[in-house]
Amino acid sequence: MKHLLKLLDLSPGEIVEILDLADELKAELKSGISKPRLQGKTLGMIFQKSSTRTRVSFEVGMYQLGGMALYLNANDLQIGRGEPVEDTARVLSRYLDGIMIRTYAQEEVERLAEYSSIPVINGLTDMFHPCQVLADLMTMREYLGRDLAGKKLCFIGDGNNMANSLIVGGLKMGMSVSCACPENYRPAKVVLDFAANYGNKFTLTDKPEAAAVGADVMVTDVWASMGQEHEKAQRELAFKGYQVNDRIMALANPNCIVQHCLPAHKGEEITYEVFEAHAKEIFDEAENRLHVQKAVLVKLLG
Ligand code: CP
Ligand code: NVA
Q1: Which of 110, 139, 152, 122 is nearest to 54 (CA)?
Q2: Is the minimum distance from the CB of 163 to ligand 2 under 6 angstroms?
Q3: How many whole angstroms separate alpha carbon 182 and alpha carbon 90?
Q4: Ligand 2 pocket, residue 222 CB under 6 Å
Q5: Ligand 2 centre and the CA of 101: distance in Å?
Q6: What's residue 34's pLDDT?
Q7: How far apart are CA 38 and CA 64, in angstroms?
Q8: Ligand 1 centroid vs 52 CA: distance in angstroms?
Q9: Which ligand 2 atom is the nearest neighbour of the CA of 53?
């Protein structure tokens, strides 16, 4: 593994290795041990979009590993004034040991990686959010057991970056994945093509109730992602009926956990009641960003 651009690039074995190392790093941290596995290493973090979790968890993660992270707001970089991504990649490769980037187009991340001689990590694009889904899988293993094979993951809402990455991650872990999205808001074609290899382990419907039946994990995400704020009104109409609420949860397994990458819009994609009833799992998921990304950093930069 040279980069982390999308989960489609990783084998199930590589995903499990990251999750196992993340468990180990979490246990170490909780017992007060801190091995400087990335002593003297630097990570540049390019942000074209806002972030709370990704920024803080990567920055703290690098510090805990003995390295350092640089926050690079794209608007302050020459890339924000049009310097080509391939030149930015070659320059940053001369200073840094790794690059994390959050941006719009997946192609930009892929291009950055193509021209970088150092590892590139996707910190979210319009298409994928691999770091988040690794944290979700880590959390699922904590609640459902280390072997996720045969467990049912349900995603209700927009076929966005989270849906795309969850479908790939869940299927690669042997889970069955059911997805409920309105017709015009389906997951990406490349993801549906991938899922087609999994037969009836993957289902896509426009009926949230059908998708929710027997779920072990219920996941949702905002209806309007970053960059889609202007579509908010139209999306609220399209996603009416795609809310994770008590009625949907009653169809899932009794011990079903809830995951939400955050930030959440309570009262829209999830009710306040369901969110608060499952806050423990949701904030464990947020915490696990730190541990799983440290594992990714050790694998790529170590
Ligand atoms: N879930 C997530 O990526 O959060 P941020 O946008 O705050 O980084
Ligand atoms: N789908 C959301 C995820 C935020 C972490 C977005 O892209 O804005």
Answers
A1: 122
A2: no
A3: 41
A4: yes
A5: 14
A6: 82
A7: 9
A8: 5
A9: 5
Closest ligand 1 atom, CA of 261? 1
Which ligand 2 atom lies nearest to the CA of residue 158?
1
Work out whether strand 217-220 and strand 152-156 pair parallel, antiparallel, or are unpaired: parallel
Is it true that the peptide bond before 130 is cis, omega within 30 degrees of 0? no
Nearest bound ligand to CA 57? 1
Residue closest by Cα to atom 2 of ligand 2: 225
Q: Are strands 176-180 and 152-156 parallel, antiparallel or unpaired?
A: parallel
Structure-token pair, residue 189: 């074609």
CB 102 within 8 A of CB 47: yes
Token pair for 200: 């009836």
139-169 pLDDT, tens digit each:
999 999 999 999 999 999 999 999 999 999 9
| Sheet strands side by side (includes 120-122) | 68-73, 42-47, 98-102, 120-122
Residue numbers in the chain where pLDDT is lower than 50: none
What is the residue whose two structure tokens read 């956990």?
Answer: 257
- Residues 179 and 155 sit within 8 Å (Cβ to Cβ): yes
Could you tell me which of 190, 115, 134 has the C-alpha nearest to residue 10?
134
Ligand 2 geometric centre to CA of 90 (Å)? 28
With a CB cutoff of 8 Å and minimum separation 6, the contacts of 129 are 122, 161, 162, 165, 261
Is residue 160 in contact with ligand 2, taking CB distance under 6 Å? Answer: yes
pLDDT tens by residue, 240-250: 999 999 999 99
**In ligand 1, which atom is closest to the CA atom of 226?**
6
Residue 204, beta-bridge partner list: 179
The protein residue whose alpha carbon is closest to atom 1 in ligand 1 is 261
Is any atom of ligand 1 closer than 6 Å to the C-beta of 132?
yes
pLDDT of residue 232: 97
